[in-house]
Design brief:
Number of helices: 21
Strand content: 15-25%
Shape: rod-shaped
């Protein structure tokens, strides 16, 4: 702890002088930077602030006016306190000091017994120097911690967690849009830490490492929240440290409730500064500053889908801190990317990232809010805030329509299919519906010539059921048995012909017209196909069985859910 005037008064060497506080009792917690012994009338040019002045009072003697001037000069110079040794028969001097101290704010202490000033300076300076060594050691420890994290390429959350552990307080990392991309709540419930975060963060005064939270007007007053730099009455004090990327400030680290003591504030500011530098190194190395918000959203979505689902209040608060507006309903939506021929994992990751960036811009431009993240390879999960349940179709049409236009116009065109689950009032329930939406999107992607902006489970019907059964051994055996005559080498052409024939409802004329084949050629190929299958293609039940088998065979190429 920093040595204060009160702590000096508790030292044995000072207590031996029978100290009496004549003035400034409310300022005894002021830190003592150094001890200065002097008998000069004017010390203004010798002090730098924070000194404890030791004197025998010879500079003012028995003059109350001179004593008042002397104390005023010390106070103006920023002295921490003054100790005046008035022992023996110096009643006039004591009376002058007492009279002058009545109007002083500076701590004025009278020593009734004689002590050795050199002993006071030795003890106090030893403690001050020891504390300075402790501060240097602490700074070195903090420097080493974050240097090691940087060398280990630690993640953003790990750096924030370490900062919170070092300062023993909650720490929040926000980007330039005041979205919370990482946080370490410590003992504070997340809903209390992040409640109304964007409004509170925008309302603080940015005047240095310490910023003050402005008091926002009550919600029912109808007033807009205060803007940055507003002159409203300050609320709690925050600590901040910028996270800079070159000359650009990317975001900032914040402790929403500053420590009480100046010493703790200085140490916390130092930790935040070093953590901010480590984060800047991380961001420059990753070269994916925009992806941090997506990672934070992905983390929350995966938590909502995990067995340990956060409480709804906490989930709503964290989602709001990530930009999702509180709404009466949340809609699960999954965009299933068309991998295309010869797609590799790196190509799919590039497409996922491009789709996420496009989706973010579309959601913002349509004045909606959502959480979005890569669910699994080739799929982007979305929890969309609906302003009203009745607006579900219109919101989906607009977002999917604009997204389709921008996807087609991208440098690398993106082809995707949208599957929609059921809207829920709970975020956790909506997140659970992402599985249904993913199944619908994946199944709808196998439809030929769908042409719809988005699909629900009612749109995939039998195909959706078969997609769920495609890995069932009994369904696999059924499909293999039905198609055994045409499976094997060179089966692709026969399968394609059978599928087109079944999709035309067994109408050979329509099939010939769509396939640009003459009727004699088509009839000959169908006759050969029928022989290989061993069933009549004119029988409705046979066509139904074959159609189910073909669908199962095609759906088996889909990845497991």
């Amino acid at each position: 702890m920093m040595l204060t005037v009160a702590a000096v008064l508790e030292l044995d060497v000072v207590r031996a002088g029978a100290p009496e506080v004549l003035a400034g009792a409310g300022f005894l917690d002021c830190p003592v930077r150094w001890v200065h012994v002097a008998e000069l009338r004017n010390l203004a040019d010798l002090l730098e602030g924070g000194e404890l002045v030791l004197t025998t009072g010879l500079a003012f003697g028995d003059s109350a006016g001179d004593a008042a001037d002397y104390l005023a000069g010390l106070e103006a110079a920023g002295a921490a306190a003054v100790m005046v040794e008035l022992s023996g028969d110096r009643r006039a001097d004591a009376a002058a000091l007492a009279a002058a101290a009545e109007g002083a704010r500076l701590p004025v202490i009278r020593l009734h017994r004689q002590i050795r000033f050199v002993e006071v300076t030795e003890v106090v300076h030893r403690r001050i120097v020891a504390r300075q060594f402790e501060q240097v050691a602490r700074a070195r420890e903090v420097h080493e911690v974050f240097t090691l994290l940087s060398l280990q390429s630690a993640g953003v959350q790990e750096i924030v967690d370490q900062a919170a552990q070092l300062v023993a307080a909650p720490v929040v990392l926000e980007d330039g849009s005041h979205l919370v991309v990482a946080f370490a709540p410590g003992p504070v419930p997340p809903q209390d830490l992040l409640g109304n975060w964007q409004r509170r963060s925008r309302a603080v005064h940015r005047t240095g490492p310490e910023i003050r939270e402005a008091k926002a007007p009550p919600a029912e007053s109808g007033q807009a929240p205060p803007s940055e730099g507003s002159g409203q009455a300050p609320g709690g004090t925050w600590l901040q440290a910028p996270v800079d990327l070159g000359s650009r400030q990317w975001g900032r680290l914040v402790i929403p409730q500053a420590p009480a003591s100046p010493e703790a504030v200085a140490e916390a500011s130092m930790v935040l500064e070093r953590a901010g530098q480590a984060l800047a190194i991380n961001l420059l190395t990753e070269r994916d500053q925009a992806g941090l918000a997506q990672q934070a959203q992905a983390g929350l979505i995966h938590e909502l889908r995990s067995p340990r689902v956060p409480g709804e209040t906490e989930a709503q608060t964290r989602a709001e801190a990530l930009g999702l507006k509180p709404s009466p309903a949340y809609l699960p939506l999954v965009l299933h990317l068309d991998a295309g021929a010869g797609a590799d994992p790196m190509s799919m990751q590039r497409k996922e990232r491009a789709l996420l960036e496009l989706l973010d811009s579309v959601v913002s431009s349509t004045r909606n809010t959502a959480l979005a993240a890569a669910l699994q390879t080739g799929q982007v999960a979305v929890l969309l805030a609906l302003p009203a349940r009745l607006l579900e179709d219109s919101v989906l049409e607009r977002i999917c329509g604009v997204l389709a236009e921008r996807s087609a116009a991208a440098a690398e065109p993106l082809i995707w299919t949208a599957g929609v689950g059921r809207a829920r009032s709970s975020l956790a329930e909506a997140a659970a519906g992402l599985d249904e939406a993913a199944h619908v999107a994946q199944t709808a992607g196998t439809l030929s010539g769908g042409g719809k902006r988005f699909y629900r489970s009612t749109d995939v019907r039998l195909r959706g059921l078969l997609a769920l059964l495609r890995e069932d051994p009994r369904a696999v055996s059924f499909a293999d048995a039905e198609l055994s005559g045409i499976l094997g080498d060179g089966a692709g052409e026969d399968l394609a012909l059978l599928q087109r024939f079944l999709e035309c409802g067994g109408n050979k004329t329509a099939l010939a017209r769509s396939g640009f084949l003459s009727r004699p050629t088509l009839y000959a190929r169908l006759e050969r196909l029928q022989t290989r299958l061993g069933v009549s293609l004119d029988d409705p039940e046979s066509r139904t069985s074959l159609h189910v088998a073909v669908l199962l065979h095609r759906l088996r190429v889909l990845p497991a859910g």
